[in-house]
Structure formats: structure tokens, C-alpha cells
Q: What sequence folds into this?
């Protein structure tokens, strides 16, 4: 006899109907389209190279060919021509990272697909092989045959384990030259290792927010089935390996990739020479010392990492443009480029400027010189870090003058607002909120105010806006500051807004996979209006309010006033406390509040106890009720089956998933309830 004491009912999150993106899982996405060459060696980043004898590598030419390719911005080209030598071989290889999230498992069948082009092989041969476990699979057998154009090959290969228990899978591209004169040219493009699995994610969080990742350091595959990453600022690691840009961009084509470069300075660290640094510190230091910005007779060293350049000099601008044009060709020809440290103030004390207006004009001239060429030749625009002066790009209000940066707007694809709404002061171990602003500083672009951040975030909805609040974690006011930042993002967001909230200092290093507080996931639905301001206006500040489908965001950015707000209906607060309609809520200065409707589904199971003999059946009834403030949509009810039971029937018809009986109820109105039934047999 089997005694059933109870069944545990698992109720999934209510689905709010956000759009989904799906893609076939590609374990080779880090290779991208064989177009990334950040380290400028002619070889697709992340490929390894082996040669025997080693000198043969020096006789082979590598390059990313941007004019002859199958897809993306380039193909990997390998060519050689030598007069005489001993027999030699060379291979390029790249393996699957089995430590990555979503890695293949032993026995899984993957489809390897690639395109190749070969010509002029004389006294030499080429091949492409797949190594899985201890087995070798030939996708292009060793040959010297010219292809007469691009050819595409596919091969199904099982994931195997070596005799020593090691998982191994890699693609090898090889050439072998016989003794004597030899030559050949081989191009490879669009290598894929495809799983039968797919990855799927929503386009946005359940309130419209989309995620930005700035300089990611974690496993990119973790972001495929997780948060809706919309844009990646990619500076690559010191090793130069491809990561988030290739993985996210290849799986979800709507993901925006913006390579990182340093606009104002030349970086001392050598690993940045060919990408982040537009000027090349070694060359400038040795051959162009007059290019450095001089303040009080000294070069200006920032963060012990880079020296500020005199961007007002024509030759400095030209160097930046030539470096950028070369870099973007090696970075896949992106649509946007992130310019860090677009500094409006540092040059004000320089010997050859003397005031901030002259330096600001030098910055404008440099941005326009580089930006206009980016647009016309590469179809790319700039996303500057506006932390130094958000107002630098704002048009004048009430007849006031435009800020200098308005002249650069045609070349700006958007703005990253670092320290938006909250600012981590790590050295002071506190998080601050900037003053809102006054009528006296209305059109003063040199003053950093919260009002200017709001304006920059909202006045150019056709441009990308990356809101980047920072805070010091672990302090008494941490939750208040995070909620203030999230509420601000919800108040100002539009269709081109992306958000990254970054902990700095304190315990910030405990978030290697990124920081996504629960406040970001509050189920507000979409916004239904732009924000409105009660008890004030945009110039002087007031209580900002914005309606969403399932709630209201209330935000007080003022540093000197408190407000109250009367709830129009029953709503939950941040902590899911039910606040009744007509309640007057206090909204203190520099706080943000979200009030939202949500279903609250409770589930009861009967009978809770039963004694059943083997071979007998028992019928269970599941009763669900919505005690919340909003209807439940596509509510998923899942009941796990204990061991020793077999499902024999259900009403309405359920499906069995991973040992659970599952129903999806299309709609459960507020106060509504319903029943589900299923019958099991005891084995």
C-alpha cells in the first residue's frame, strides 16, 4: 500500500506576453564570422596556430579579407609562396569551451558547417578536420584542388570523450607544403558548430527595460537564455579573445555591438595598442611628444593608465581617424563605436588653451573630424561617455544658447550616461545623488545636474541612450539608492534606452555575472504615456509620475523638497505590500517608488492524504484562485508526480514535462478561481 501524504504544487511566474527571440545554439559563436582581429596579427581572434618547423609560420601570410567573404565583414585568408624548403605543415585550430554555460554533452550530435575557397595550390595540399574525443572526422579531405569559388560543407559529428575522460572537440584548418617550391591560398568563413537545441529570450524585461553590458568579463553563453541584453560595449579582454560581441551578435542579430576606444588619451598598457588606444603610446612618446596635453608644464596622467592627448591638433585627429578606420575594419564594421573619456574639462588649464571654451571647441572639432569620416566611409556613429558633462549636447532652453556639443549631434549615435541618477563615490564609501538643478544653471553646460541627465536621456529618442547608474553596495542606504536609480530609468526610458546598474567598491566584486536587482524585474508592462511632473516643472523639478499598463512609477529627484502621492487604485509597492486606493503615500526627496498590479495565485490540492494499493487509481483536484490586484495571463500550474505513479488522465488535458503535470490557464481574473483534475495509477 502506498500512502500519499501530499503533493507539492509549483506555480510558475505569470507570463506577461513579451516578444521572444529564438536562435539555434552555436557552440562556435565566439569565432563570429571570422572577421575579428583585435590584436592585429591577421588571424581571427581566439584561433591557435601551430607549425612544424616553427619557421614555416613566418613564411605564411595571414589576413582578414574584407572583400572576398561569404558572410559578415571578412574571411580568414591563409596564403604562402616559397622557393624551397623541407616538408612543412601549419594548422589553425579552435575548440569548444566545455566550461561555458550551455556547453554540449557527451553523445550530443552537432552539425559542423563552414565555407572555404582554395586556389593556386602547387606542391602543397590543404584540409579541414574535426577532432571529437579521440576520433578525427574529415569535413574537407586533404587535397590540392582549386574550388572555383566558395564551397560550403556540412558534417554531423558526435561529441565524444577521450579515453582519459577529457571532453575534446575542435576544428582544425591545415596546409602542408612538400619539399621544394610550394604555394597556395585558402580562405575559410562562417564556421558553425550547431546544436539541435535552441536558445530563446524576451526582447525586454516585464517593464520595457533592456540590458546593456559594459566591458563584460563573464561567460557570454550565460546571457543567451537569461536577461534581454540589447547592447554590448566590448573592449575585449587582455588576451584579445572574442566574447560577448560574437556570441550575442551571432545568436540575436538585434543585439548592438559597440567596440570600446579611448577618445582623449593614449593608453600606457601595451595590450591596448591596436584597439582601445587610437594614438599608440609608444610611437607618440618616442616620435611625437608635442602631441601630449601639457598642464602646468607636465603631461596629464589619468588613472595611472593613460595620458591626455591634445585633440585640438590636426595631426592628432588624423592619427585617431586612421587608427579607428583600421580598427573598425578588424572589428566587424560595427554601426556604433563607444568613445570613453570625452572630457570637457581637463584641457581648460592647458598652456595652449587657457579656458574651457577653447578646449570645448577643440573637442567639438575632433569629434566632428572623426565622426563625419566614420559616417561617410564606414556608416558608423559615436556613442560618447557623457559623464563629464551631460549638458554638453543639450539645446538651449527658454531662448538660451545651445551647448557646444550640439554641433556634433549628426555624428552621435547615442550617449552613455555614466553615474546616471546615482554616483558611487568609492573613495568616500558612499553613493550620492546630484542636485536637481536651478534656474541659475539652466543653460550652463559646465554644471553637472540631475536635470541635464534627464534631458539628455529623453530629448533625443532617436538615439541610443545607455543609463549607467553606479552605487557602493553594502551601505545602509543601498536599497534606497538602487530603487531611486531603477525608478529613474523607468521614468525616462524610451524605445532606444538600455540600462546597466553597476556596483563599485564595497562588495561589488561579488557580481561577476553582472548585477540585476529584483527591482529591475517589477512587472509593470509597457509604459502608456511619457512622464508628467506634478508640483513643478522640468526646470525647477517636481514629482515625476509615469503610468504603465500595470502600475505607476513615482520619482522625486529633488534634493530640497518632499511630496505626497495619492494612489488611484489598489496597488502593491516595491516590497509587495498591498496599498489601498486613496492612500496618501509619502515621497521623500531623492527617492523612487513603483506601485503595480499583479496577480497572486494560490493553489490548493485535494485530497491531501490518500491510501492507495498498487494498481489502483486516485483522482486529484487542483483549485486555483487569484487573490491579487491584476488578472493572471498564461498562468502555468505544474504538479510534480511522486515516484511510483503514472499519469492516466487529466481534465482539461495536461501535458507531462520532466515528471510534472502541467497546465497553462489563459486567464485568471481578479477574484477568479477554477479547478483542474488529474488521475494517477500507483505502480
A:
Amino acid at each position: 500500500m502506498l500512502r500519499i501524504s501530499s503533493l507539492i504544487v509549483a506555480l510558475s511566474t505569470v507570463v506577461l506576453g513579451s516578444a521572444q527571440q529564438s536562435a539555434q545554439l552555436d557552440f562556435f559563436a565566439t569565432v563570429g564570422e571570422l572577421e575579428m582581429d583585435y590584436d592585429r596579427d591577421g588571424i581571427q581572434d581566439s584561433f591557435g596556430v601551430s607549425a612544424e618547423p616553427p619557421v614555416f609560420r613566418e613564411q605564411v601570410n595571414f589576413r582578414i579579407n574584407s572583400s572576398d567573404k561569404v558572410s559578415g565583414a571578412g574571411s580568414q585568408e591563409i596564403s604562402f609562396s616559397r622557393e624551397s624548403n623541407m616538408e612543412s605543415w601549419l594548422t589553425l585550430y579552435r575548440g569548444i569551451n566545455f566550461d561555458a554555460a550551455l556547453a554540449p554533452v557527451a553523445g550530443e550530435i552537432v552539425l559542423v558547417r563552414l565555407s572555404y575557397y582554395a586556389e593556386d595550390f602547387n606542391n602543397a595540399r590543404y584540409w579541414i578536420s574535426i577532432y571529437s574525443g579521440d576520433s578525427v572526422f574529415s569535413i574537407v579531405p586533404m587535397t590540392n584542388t582549386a574550388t572555383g569559388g566558395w564551397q560550403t560543407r556540412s558534417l554531423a559529428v558526435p561529441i565524444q570523450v577521450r579515453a582519459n575522460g577529457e571532453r575534446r572537440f575542435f576544428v582544425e584548418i591545415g596546409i602542408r607544403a612538400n619539399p621544394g617550391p610550394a604555394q597556395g591560398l585558402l580562405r575559410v568563413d562562417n564556421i558553425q558548430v550547431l546544436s539541435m537545441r535552441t536558445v530563446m529570450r524576451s526582447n525586454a524585461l516585464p517593464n520595457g527595460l533592456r540590458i546593456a553590458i559594459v566591458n563584460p568579463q563573464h561567460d557570454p553563453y550565460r546571457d543567451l537564455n537569461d536577461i534581454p541584453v540589447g547592447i554590448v560595449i566590448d573592449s575585449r579582454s587582455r588576451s584579445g579573445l572574442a566574447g560577448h560581441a560574437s556570441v550575442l551578435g551571432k545568436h540575436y542579430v538585434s543585439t548592438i555591438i559597440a567596440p570600446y576606444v579611448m577618445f582623449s588619451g593614449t593608453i600606457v598598457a601595451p595590450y591596448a595598442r591596436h584597439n582601445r588606444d587610437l594614438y599608440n603610446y609608444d610611437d607618440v612618446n618616442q616620435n611625437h611628444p608635442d602631441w601630449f596635453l601639457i598642464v602646468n608644464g607636465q603631461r596629464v596622467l589619468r588613472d595611472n593608465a593613460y595620458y591626455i592627448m591634445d585633440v585640438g591638433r590636426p595631426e592628432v585627429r588624423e592619427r585617431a581617424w586612421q587608427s579607428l578606420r583600421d580598427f573598425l575594419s578588424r572589428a566587424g564594421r560595427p554601426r556604433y563605436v563607444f568613445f570613453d573619456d570625452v572630457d570637457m574639462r581637463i584641457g581648460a588649464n592647458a598652456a595652449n588653451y587657457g579656458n574651457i571654451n577653447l578646449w570645448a571647441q577643440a573637442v567639438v572639432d575632433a569629434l566632428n573630424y572623426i565622426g563625419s569620416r566614420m559616417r561617410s566611409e564606414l556608416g558608423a556613429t559615436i556613442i560618447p561617455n557623457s559623464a563629464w558633462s551631460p549638458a554638453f549636447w543639450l539645446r538651449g532652453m527658454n531662448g538660451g544658447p545651445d551647448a557646444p556639443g550640439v554641433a556634433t549631434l549628426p555624428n552621435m549615435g547615442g550617449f552613455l550616461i555614466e553615474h546616471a541618477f546615482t554616483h558611487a563615490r568609492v573613495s568616500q564609501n558612499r553613493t550620492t545623488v546630484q542636485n536637481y538643478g536651478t534656474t541659475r544653471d539652466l543653460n550652463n553646460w559646465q554644471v553637472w545636474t540631475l536635470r541635464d541627465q534627464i534631458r539628455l536621456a529623453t530629448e533625443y529618442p532617436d538615439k541610443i541612450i545607455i543609463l549607467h547608474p553606479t552605487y557602493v553596495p553594502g551601505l545602509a542606504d543601498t536599497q534606497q539608492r538602487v530603487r531611486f536609480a531603477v525608478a529613474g530609468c523607468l521614468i525616462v526610458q524610451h524605445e532606444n534606452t538600455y540600462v546597466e546598474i553597476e556596483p563599485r567598491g564595497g562588495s561589488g566584486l561579488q557580481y561577476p555575472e553582472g548585477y540585476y536587482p529584483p527591482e529591475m524585474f517589477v512587472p509593470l508592462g509597457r509604459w502608456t504615456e511619457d512622464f508628467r511632473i506634478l508640483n513643478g516643472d522640468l526646470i525647477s523639478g517636481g514629482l515625476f509620475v509615469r503610468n504603465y499598463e500595470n502600475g505607476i512609477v513615482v520619482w522625486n529627484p529633488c534634493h530640497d523638497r518632499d511630496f505626497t502621492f495619492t494612489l488611484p487604485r489598489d496597488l502593491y509597492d516595491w516590497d509587495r505590500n498591498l496599498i489601498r486606493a486613496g492612500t496618501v503615500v509619502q515621497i521623500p526627496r531623492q527617492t523612487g517608488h513603483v506601485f503595480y498590479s499583479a496577480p497572486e495565485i494560490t493553489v490548493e490540492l485535494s485530497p491531501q492524504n490518500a491510501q492507495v494499493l498498487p494498481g489502483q487509481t486516485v483522482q486529484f483536484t487542483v483549485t486555483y484562485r487569484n487573490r491579487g490586484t491584476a488578472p493572471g495571463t498564461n498562468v502555468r500550474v505544474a504538479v510534480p508526480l511522486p515516484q511510483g505513479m503514472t499519469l492516466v488522465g487529466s481534465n482539461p488535458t495536461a501535458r507531462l514535462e520532466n515528471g510534472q503535470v502541467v497546465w497553462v490557464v489563459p486567464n485568471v481574473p481578479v477574484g477568479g478561481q477554477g479547478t483542474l483534475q488529474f488521475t494517477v495509477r500507483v505502480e
Notes: The chain has a mean pLDDT of 90. The helical segments are 55-58, 244-251, 281-287, 314-330, 356-378, 450-458, 478-492. The domain at 2-15+600-682 is CATH 2.60.40.1170 (Immunoglobulin-like). The chain is about 10% helix and 40% strand.
